[in-house]
Amino acid sequence: MDYPTIADCVGNTPLIKLQRLPGDTSNTILLKLEGNNPAGSVKDRPALSMINHAEARGQIKPGDTLIEATSGNTGIALAMAAAIKGYRMILIMPDSATAERKASMTAYGAELILVSAEEGMEGARDLALQMQTEGRGLVLNQFANADNPLAHYEGTGPEIWQQTAGEITHFVSSMGTTGTIMGCGRFLKEQKPEIQIVGLQPTDGSSIPGIRRWPQAYLPKIFVPEEVDLVIDMDQREAEEMTRRLAREEGIFCGVSSGGAVAGALRLSCQVENAIIVAIICDRGDRYLSSGLFNQ
């Protein structure tokens, strides 16, 4: 018998209906539970995709060193993927990340380099590229790597299409590296051009893990703005409150970018009728416990 490996468990995540929060509406709001992936987030998909395709091109082989700048979920996913496939993984991230995220990466055997909160993700990305120039490893570069959105074009998007029997009318996703919204959006639009692709970015001054408003110089190269029909600005407090409500009123334990996506979907639901709105739940809430997010 051919038994699956842990890598075979990435993807095919559940799509579930939001029950109480939508209130009295003709719309159906569905949530794609990406926290059900083995390393706990939607980033498991592009992590494996980037490594598998780099191997297929002959760019890397087991035993090589990989480097990546991350705010958390991609790093955890890459640490898992490197452990599965036999790579040395160096991850660079702001020291403001939660203790759970740092501990998860090192648990998988990754080496962690921290930059200051002031340097942020931009500083982490600069350092990763500098280390590559110095010959210390290969940067997978989730921000410019076409194998990131490809994971969602080949996996997440088709799953959503199948799970909704093609009835989806709106797709809502937080935007960080933008791989999820680019890959899913592209696939879904090819099936039904009238599907609305909706992205979330933080309001000025808001800090929401996994959602970014990038300076122009750091805008992900995989991002094609015209492929997003609507961008919703999400306030940190609204996203955090929705994250708490999801746990307490729906039993859905997730992170703040997911709370923001659901808040955006509910805003959208007030403006449309008879819609099938799908939002991405990026990860699980347990990696945010030390932040105090869920404190009473």
Automatic annotation (TrEMBL):
UniProt GO MF annotations: cysteine synthase activity
Q: Which domain of life is it from?
A: Bacteria
**What PROSITE patterns does the record point to?**
CYS_SYNTHASE
The EC designation for this entry is: 2.5.1.47
- Which residues does the UniProt record annotate as the domain Tryptophan synthase beta chain-like PALP? 7-283
Q: Which InterPro entries match?
A: Cys_synth, Cys_Synth/Cystath_Beta-Synth, CysM, P-phosphate_BS, TrpB-like_PALP, TrpB-like_PALP_sf
The record's annotation in CDD domains points to: CBS_like
Catalyzed reactions per annotation? O-acetyl-L-serine + hydrogen sulfide = L-cysteine + acetate
Required cofactor(s): pyridoxal 5'-phosphate
UniProt pathway annotation? Amino-acid biosynthesis; L-cysteine biosynthesis; L-cysteine from L-serine: step 2/2
Cite the entry's keywords alphabetically: Amino-acid biosynthesis, Cysteine biosynthesis, Pyridoxal phosphate, Transferase
Q: Output the Pfam families linked to this UniProt entry.
A: PALP (PF00291)
Q: Which family does it belong to?
A: Belongs to the cysteine synthase/cystathionine beta-synthase family.
Q: What is this protein called?
A: Cysteine synthase
Q: Which organism is it from?
A: Microbulbifer variabilis
Gene name, Swiss-Prot/TrEMBL: cysM
